Amino acid sequence: MEFETKYIAPEIKLSEYNGKLFKTEVMFEHHLLVWFISGETKIIQAHTTNVFTAGDIFLIPGNQLATVINYPKNGLPHKAVAMHLTPEKLKEYYSKYKAAVRARPLQKVYRFSKHPLLESCLASLIPYFDLGRNLPPDIANIKIEEAISILRSIDQSVDGLLANFEEPGKIDLSEFMERHFMFNMPLDKFSYLTGRSLATFRRDFKKIYNTTPQKWLTEKRLQLAHYQIAQKQRKPNDVYIETGFENLSHFSFAFKKHFGYPPNAIPGQ
Q1: Using one digit for the tens of pLDDT, what is the confidence trace for 207-247?
Q2: CATH code, 192
């Protein structure tokens, strides 16, 4: 089996992938704490790209668009423990412990690589994944609370993120789309993250760009891909994933239709 996922609870999972490459476009609905056991992951966000390998521990803020590309490495599968820090669990935690920081949360990936306390907490989960119904009562809640406490002891600024329960408010649509157009997400995700209903999103988009979101997104992605190939000397096979296309054949077809030549035949190259 190429892909296997085991759960202790809906919030805690162990995933293992043995294929050549697995790519997905996601909106991290919840904050996600990840301990990377083996393989490699590239997480591409609006203006930053993070690469994680074995031993890395990181916290990804919720309500973030990202392209995630997972690879096996050094003959080992892509394998990681992931803990979803849901609003319900966080509200339960902060009802007992006062937040130290109430500042505006930093929308960044927090790195805690090879931190002994966090690694010990997450590594201790491994034996539980094979127990099935024989799990100790409430073990998931205990482990989630332990992980939050350790995160706060390492970096108190994380309270600004974890103790913030506001829904995304209405924001500048143009600025958001210019930063996130390369993410191949449903329009309802874009509308939610800009604080709009889908109907309002479409109406506001039309006022700004005088075209449909689908047409604008395709053209922006193709322009970015052209720049990456022509100016950065990158190969089409490396570019199509990072610019929001599902597969190389669809990318090549759309590229030739838009520019009049295939991506591997850009004039002057």
Answers
A1: 999 999 999 999 999 999 999 998 888 889 888 888 888 88
A2: 1.10.10.60
Instruction: Write out the two tokens for 192.
Output: 């939610």
Show Cβ contacts of residue 75 under 8 Å, excluding neighbours closer than 6 positions: none
Q: What is the pLDDT of residue 107?
A: 63
Q: Give the helix, strand, coil percentages of the chain, each rounded to 5.
A: 40, 25, 35
**With b meaning 16 or more CB within 10 Å and e meaning fewer, what string describes 240-253?**
bbbbbbeeeeebbe
pLDDT at 142: 94
Question: Are 51 and 148 within one domain?
Answer: yes
Q: Is 103 exposed, middle or buried (0-12, 13-18, 19+ CB in 10 A)?
A: exposed
**For the chain, what is the domain count?**
2
User: What does pTM read for this prediction?
Assistant: 0.73
Q: Are residues 156 and 200 in the same domain?
A: no
- Cα–Cα distance, 197 to 184 (Å, whole number): 19
CA distance linking residue 109 with residue 95, whole number of Å: 25
Pairing between strand 22-28 and 110-111?
A: unpaired
Q: With a cut of 70, say whether residue 269 has pLDDT above it.
A: no
What is the amino acid identity at position 220?
A: K
The CATH code of the domain that includes 40 is 2.60.120.810
Task: Report the chain's terminal Cα–Cα distance, integer Å.
Answer: 42
Provide the mean pLDDT of the chain. 87
